[in-house]
């Protein structure tokens, strides 16, 4: 579902830059996904068998998948709340938030747009970015970061990076990944860029954050980074091929690029996903909204990461295609943990994920509220054994480039 990245917040406007200096959140460890439903009530007794699949069948091969061509139900479908369901959308995940100081930023960057009381980045630069940038959404991004580490068996990256001297995190969001990476490699200079200044003020001395728009030509010196990390930018990039060419130019020969993305389309292996359910409509909502703003959300579904890396000139390209459960339904304890965090990331701020897209598609405030109520009820019921695809792709710039 949907990388702002945790990772991700998103890309960001060039020219206005900000530096800062704090304490990293500890990286938490676990294992990766599976798809066996748990028996209904009572503790589940089963051995952990979770695995991360190396290049399994593509998402299109899943017979129960909601395909990228599916069309969202009309907003009029969401007019009646589920019986007995609370419509409160105020859940909170990670209590501690660290919004950065904005004293050094111009008012144009901080002149946030507001939709139904939620703030989005300013009109300056990439004004079609779809995610909110307020405290509640920052909490969901940090939960997503933990989810991504669980899917990588507790690691925060997959590429065979060795002794990097300079690393770049595009769409750094809350900065949590950049901070963790800087703590792992204290001799490495880590730069995190984003369009919204929502990063913490206190960071490790080898980290700095900059306001920068990665959808524009990059301003970094060519051949200057040993590692470029990109996460959760679906719906942000108009031309992924041009985007990866910019990353290629910024990398030093022998440097690594790594891209983490997730498909918005969900599916069930056991036919427990009704096509008109709120969960099933999650993918079409983003696919249709993305078409309306000219930004694709089907990067994983169309294998764009690998194709764009190959076109840019990267070699030694590898990938992990991971089936991620959503909800606490899997029988395997480790997969259930993955599913609980996937659900938690969405439930922390359902509204922040969908509000821009529903506005683009002409939904009323009441229809959004009803949809959220249905989605919450379905996620918590454990009846819908839902999964989605997440893909990590990494490649190397040739030494001779």
From TrEMBL:
The name this protein goes by in its record: S-adenosyl-L-methionine-dependent methyltransferase
Region (Disordered): 1-71, 77-96
Annotated Pfam families: Methyltransf_23 (PF13489)
GO biological process: one example: methylation
InterPro entries per UniProt: SAM-dependent_MTases_sf
Compositional bias per record (Polar residues), positions renumbered to this chain: 46-55
The entry's keywords: Methyltransferase, Transferase
UniProt biased composition (Low complexity): 61-71
Family statement: Belongs to the methyltransferase superfamily. LaeA methyltransferase family.
GO molecular function, one term: methyltransferase activity
């Amino acid at each position: 579902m949907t990388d702002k990245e945790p990772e991700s917040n998103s890309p960001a406007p060039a020219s206005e830059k900000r530096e800062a200096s704090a304490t990293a959140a500890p990286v938490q460890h676990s294992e990766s996904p599976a798809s066996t439903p748990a028996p209904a009530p009572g503790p589940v007794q089963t051995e952990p068998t979770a695995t991360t699949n190396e290049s399994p069948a593509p998402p299109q091969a899943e017979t129960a998948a909601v395909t990228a061509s599916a069309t969202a139900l009309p907003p009029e479908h969401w007019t009646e709340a589920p019986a007995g369901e609370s419509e409160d959308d105020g859940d909170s995940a990670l209590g501690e938030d660290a919004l950065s100081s904005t004293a050094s930023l111009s008012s144009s960057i901080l002149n946030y747009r507001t939709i139904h009381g939620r703030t989005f980045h300013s009109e300056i630069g990439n004004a079609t970015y779809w995610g909110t940038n307020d405290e509640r959404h920052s909490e969901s991004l940090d939960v997503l970061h933990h989810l991504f580490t669980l899917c990588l068996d507790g690691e925060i990256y997959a590429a065979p990076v060795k002794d990097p001297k300079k690393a770049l995190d595009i769409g750094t969001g809350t900065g949590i990944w950049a901070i963790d990476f800087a703590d792992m490699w204290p001799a490495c200079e880590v730069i995190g860029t984003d369009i919204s200044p929502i990063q913490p003020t206190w960071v490790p001395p080898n980290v700095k954050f900059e306001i920068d728009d990665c959808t524009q030509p990059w301003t970094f010196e060519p051949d200057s980074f040993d590692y470029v990390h990109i996460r959760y930018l679906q719906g942000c990039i108009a031309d992924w091929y041009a985007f990866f060419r910019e990353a290629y130019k910024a990398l030093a020969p022998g440097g690594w690029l790594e891209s983490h993305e997730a498909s918005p389309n969900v599916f069930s292996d056991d036919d427990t996903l009704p096509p008109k359910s709120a969960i099933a409509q999650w993918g079409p909502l983003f696919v249709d909204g993305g078409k309306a703003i000219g930004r694709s959300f089907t990067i994983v579904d169309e294998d764009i990461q690998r194709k764009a890396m190959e076109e840019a000139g990267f070699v030694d390209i590898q990938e992990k295609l991971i089936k991620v459960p959503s909800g606490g339904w899997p029988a395997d304890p480790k997969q259930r943990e993955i599913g609980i965090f996937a659900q938690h990331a969405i439930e922390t701020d359902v509204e922040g994920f969908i509000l821009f897209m529903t506005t683009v598609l002409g939904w009323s405030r009441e229809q959004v509220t009803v949809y959220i109520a249905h989605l919450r009820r379905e996620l918590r019921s454990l009846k819908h054994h839902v999964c989605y695809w997440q893909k990590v792709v990494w490649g190397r710039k040739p030494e001779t480039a």
